[in-house]
Structures are given as structure tokens and as C-alpha cells.
Structure of ABC transporter ATP-binding protein:
Amino acid sequence: MINLTNVTKSYGGNVAAVSNLNLTIPRGEIFGFLGPNGAGKTTTIKMITGIIAPDQGEVIINDKDMLKNPLEAKKQFGYVPDSPDLFLRLKGLEYLNFMADMYDVSKSERQARINTLASRFDMMHALNDPIQSYSHGMRQKTVIMGVLVHNPEVWILDEPLTGLDPKSSYTLKEMMREHADSGKTVFFSTHVLEVAEKVCDRIAIINKGVIQFCGTFKEMQEHFKTNESMEKIFLEMTVNE
């Protein structure tokens, strides 16, 4: 579960990047987080993950306060950033073992999880190659596997489908659904509105640091009294505001 209460962040003391944001993402849900460039998505994700601190407000991950108890809060989630270009000099397997070490995953558990993840993402053949030799999509899959190797309850995925081939994209969406259906939480940022419409249980749209809408796609259509696609409604909400 993720709870954000009255979260605000300004840069340079001027315009708020995020203003008085309130969100609750319960267990058992894929939650989509959408917004145009510069809307406050990245700032919000950085505050949820503890990369930056809010100027005010509260960030709670599975009842752990990010400001008061950051180490325990960070143990609750796995975070896929929007760039996979990390630790390029390591081999894939070295990186996965490094991530397992960071989260105190036992030798037996990590081996089973690495094998399962590498098999699902078709990466078994490449684990002994250096990450810098990987394609963008292979790097993305390696980062995802590293995030999931400690089996976190909360997944925070920032544009995770970027660069993935269709099969791997399908696999990740399938895993997101399995994770949510097992009673855990998936926070999913994407710019592909068609994917959000099909995959997410609920979505929030942020623009200029303010949540414009939060709910199901059906509730969005009812709210705006339209049968249009999410893409059309999103554009009408965020363009020229």
C-alpha cells in the first residue's frame, strides 16, 4: 500500500512541482500514473521512493514512514527507473547478485528467483555477458529482474515497457497482473495511454502538479460524460491548461 498525504514539492521556492497531493494505492491493484511532460510525475515518483524529500506532507509505504524510517520504507518496494543504463561494466548475473546482496536474499532463494525471472524474460543465454553489450531492451529487462529479485510487495515502475519487445512487454504486464491479484501493489507510470486503459485498475492524471482525476476508466467516462477513449479524454484535460 502507498499513502501520500498533502505532499508538496517546490524547486527554487517558486512554482510548486507537486501541490498538496493526496493518493492512496491499496493492495491488490495496478495503479496507473499519467501526465504530460513536466506535470510532476517524476517528482512524485522520486518522493515516493525517497530519492527526494517533500517540502511538506507524508509518504507511507506499507505503514512505514519514508521520512521517519526510510530504510524500512525502502525495503517494502522495488523501483524500476526510467533509464536502464546502470552498472554497465558488470555482467548481468553479477548485477542480479549485487541486487540480491543489497536486500539480503539468501543464496538458495536468489538462484531460484534469478532462474525464474531470466527464463520468463528470455535472458538465460545473456547473464554471463557484460551489461554494456546488451541492447536497450535487454538492459531494461535486467533492471526489472534486479528490482524483482527480492520479491518486493510494492512495485514502482516508471515507464517500464520502454524498449521492451512485444513478448517481454506482454510478460511484464502478465507479471504485474499476477502481483496485484496476489494482494500486492503495482504503481505504474506510463505515457502509453492505450496500455494504461487496458492494464490498470485505476488511474490518476496529474497536470501542473495537481491531480486532475483519480479513479477507474469507467468513472472517468462518467465524470466527463463521454464514451471517448482515455487518450482523447487525457488530451482534453491536459492540453492548453
In short: The CA atoms of residues 26 and 191 lie 22 Å apart.
